[in-house]
């Protein structure tokens, strides 16, 4: 049997960093972890409700949380920040107020910053959302994967990409796995900087799972 491991966790401390930076006592660790998940869910729900277009792409690549004694710093890496900012000029302030009410941040200050991504289609989360929208519109799985790889190849500097979709593909009665690959994706090389995401999409045929590996560079 093959022993699988998350490519991001495999490279922590070498080419990957933690998305949450804080310290806690062992008895309070689970509370801090649950709070991080609630913060991320609250931000994603807000962006989903207030985005300017109905394309289905939220555009959130990553949410990093840094906690201190008196401050919670949240950095949202977005591919298309204009979708949120232009639709609601005071969107960041409104989101900040909602989070402060939700988590009762009385003794801690909450600060939110949005950082745009230069090459959106070089991020696996954005690419997975793009594929999910294609699948919901009943585009063939093979065609959706090919289009995603073309976008990454043309609009981002990557050395390799691998896309895998599993589930009831194209409405088949038996679940299966389909995948495609372009370039090199050295998963066993620790110094290789690989970005990875796992994404779930609900279609009329059932739930499909999307996995994307992007080989950026080798350090």
Automatic annotation (TrEMBL):
<dbReference type="InterPro" id="IPR036419">
    <property type="entry name" value="Ribosomal_S3_C_sf"/>
</dbReference>
<dbReference type="InterPro" id="IPR005704">
    <property type="entry name" value="Ribosomal_uS3_bac-typ"/>
</dbReference>
<feature type="domain" description="KH type-2">
    <location>
        <begin position="43"/>
        <end position="118"/>
    </location>
</feature>
<dbReference type="InterPro" id="IPR009019">
    <property type="entry name" value="KH_sf_prok-type"/>
</dbReference>
<dbReference type="GO" id="GO:0019843">
    <property type="term" value="F:rRNA binding"/>
</dbReference>
<keyword id="KW-0150">Chloroplast</keyword>
<dbReference type="Pfam" id="PF00189">
    <property type="entry name" value="Ribosomal_S3_C"/>
</dbReference>
<dbReference type="InterPro" id="IPR057258">
    <property type="entry name" value="Ribosomal_uS3"/>
</dbReference>
<dbReference type="InterPro" id="IPR015946">
    <property type="entry name" value="KH_dom-like_a/b"/>
</dbReference>
<protein>
    <recommendedName>
        <fullName>Small ribosomal subunit protein uS3c</fullName>
    </recommendedName>
</protein>
<dbReference type="InterPro" id="IPR004044">
    <property type="entry name" value="KH_dom_type_2"/>
</dbReference>
<comment type="similarity">
    <text>Belongs to the universal ribosomal protein uS3 family.</text>
</comment>
<dbReference type="GO" id="GO:0009507">
    <property type="term" value="C:chloroplast"/>
</dbReference>
<dbReference type="InterPro" id="IPR001351">
    <property type="entry name" value="Ribosomal_uS3_C"/>
</dbReference>
<dbReference type="GO" id="GO:0003735">
    <property type="term" value="F:structural constituent of ribosome"/>
</dbReference>
<comment type="subunit">
    <text>Part of the 30S ribosomal subunit.</text>
</comment>
<dbReference type="GO" id="GO:0022627">
    <property type="term" value="C:cytosolic small ribosomal subunit"/>
</dbReference>
<keyword id="KW-0687">Ribonucleoprotein</keyword>
<keyword id="KW-0689">Ribosomal protein</keyword>
<keyword id="KW-0934">Plastid</keyword>
<keyword id="KW-0694">RNA-binding</keyword>
<dbReference type="GO" id="GO:0006412">
    <property type="term" value="P:translation"/>
</dbReference>
<keyword id="KW-0699">rRNA-binding</keyword>
């Amino acid at each position: 049997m093959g022993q699988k491991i998350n490519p991001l966790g495999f490279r922590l401390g070498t080419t990957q960093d933690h998305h949450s930076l804080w310290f806690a006592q062992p008895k309070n660790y689970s509370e801090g972890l649950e709070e991080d998940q609630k913060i991320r869910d609250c931000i994603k729900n807000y962006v989903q409700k207030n985005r300017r277009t109905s394309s289905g792409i939220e555009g959130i690549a990553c949410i990093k949380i840094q906690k201190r004694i008196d401050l919670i710093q949240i950095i949202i890496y977005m591919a298309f920040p204009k979708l949120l900012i232009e639709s609601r000029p005071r969107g960041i302030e409104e989101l900040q107020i909602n989070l402060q009410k939700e988590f009762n941040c009385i003794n801690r200050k909450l600060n939110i910053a949005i950082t745009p991504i230069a090459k959106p289609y070089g991020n696996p989360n954005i690419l997975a959302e793009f594929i999910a929208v294609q699948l919901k519109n009943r585009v063939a799985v093979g065609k959706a994967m090919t289009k995603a790889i073309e976008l990454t190849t043309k609009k981002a500097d990557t050395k390799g990409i691998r896309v895998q979709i599993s589930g009831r593909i194209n409405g088949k009665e038996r679940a299966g796995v389909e995948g495609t690959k372009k370039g090199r994706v050295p998963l066993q090389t620790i110094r290789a900087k690989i970005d990875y995401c796992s994404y779930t999409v609900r279609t009329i045929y059932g739930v499909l799972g999307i996995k994307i590996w992007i080989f950026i560079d080798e350090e």
